[in-house]
Amino acid sequence: MYEKTVLIIGAGPTGLTLALDLLRRKVHCRLIEAAETPFTGSRGKGIQPRTLEIFDDLGIIEPILAAGGFYPRLRIHLGPLSIRGGSLGSSKPPTVSTPYPNLWMVPQSRTEAFLRERLDALGGPVEFNTAIANFRQDQNGVDATLSTGETVRVDFLIGCDGGHSTVQKALGLKLEGETIDEKPMLVADVDVDGLNRQDWHIWPFVKGGVIGLCPLPNTPLFQLTAKAETIGTDVEGVVHRAIGHRIGRVAWQSIYQPAVRMVNRYRVGRVFLAGDAVHVHPPAGGQGLNTGVQDAYNLGWKLAHVMRGGPESLLDSYESERLPIAAAVLGLCKHLHQKRTIKRGVLTDQLGLHYRGSSLSSGYALGNLHPGDRMPDVPLADGSRLFEHMRGPHATEFATVEGPRILIRPDGYIAHIGEEQFREYAGEPTKTVTGSVKGTDHR
User: Fold this and answer.
1) Can you give the pTM of this predicted structure?
2) Mind listing the pLDDT tens digit for each residue in 392-406?
3) Cβ atoms 42, 34 nearer than 8 A
4) Domain endpoint, select from 256, 284, 317
């Protein structure tokens, strides 16, 4: 048994991704969750192409694809008439560089379930009904007291406990930003009698605001969105009167305030924050869950490298790389929410996010590829693909037929392009493959 060294607070998509990434790197961790049972709703239902690539690497892409579907087209209801419009997502075919080019809809509870199942297989079950009570840290570790009364000593503590993060508040940090809609929103999973499931239905002129009903793939449910004050406490009655279809049951519901907020630090000593504990988003653009998962994916390999004796200075790159990403994503979400635009695609798929300015990125550009870019998939001479060889906890050295070597970090971003071998940031055993990058693009 590995020494218990990392304590992760919060078992949403961010905490689950981090725990899974650490365990596959043979770094033991504990994942605790204050709730008594797993989350059951659809909240973060949009999975972006870059996150699908991460889920491929983590070994859950098959159930994710099986459970989900393309985003449906919008149907706008105007009294007795309806107009069918475009979709928030796309249905593009895979390309050489991008095996998962489309936004994929999966209810958040299903995504979390697949992550938990993979985590269980690695021997790291979630400890439900267990919260963080308090903690203190010194230069060598963190002492944490849990709600069960247990006290544990760990090397690092990671707060993935959402927008009301206990860890964030204990660090004296605050989510700064703005509310972008003064009226709170209701989101709920509901049965709807007699409504076709081919379209995302919108009633724009309902008294009190817009009502939307989006069919959730491979379930009998729709995700309902509306102004909370429009619906009040009578979800079934108000929706029935507004749209003429009866609500059979409400499986889950929640109220949220649309806002864009973030903290100005991701790390205080040996304590880190990730996901909604550092940035909160409106749902426009489907960025919240995805950005949190990618926080975890960025931090996991760095923690593992340090746990094996690597320099702790590597952990400074987590904040310097992820904080600018969060700021840019929040700006995009605000724009999409306020403009109510349908266009998504390259604006939101997160394939173009990069770490070109990072201290971990060195060397020179090779065609369209730059140090710090996401490494695209590439067909190899033996009929395999680069992503197949990148799958796993290792770094990858790609010896190109064009001459330069490309060192690919364990999280799939380019650390170095150059003729000389450069392994400083690998942190794991490095696998070497050979091929050509001619015609590839980091998008």
Assistant:
1) 0.94
2) 999 999 998 888 999
3) no
4) 256
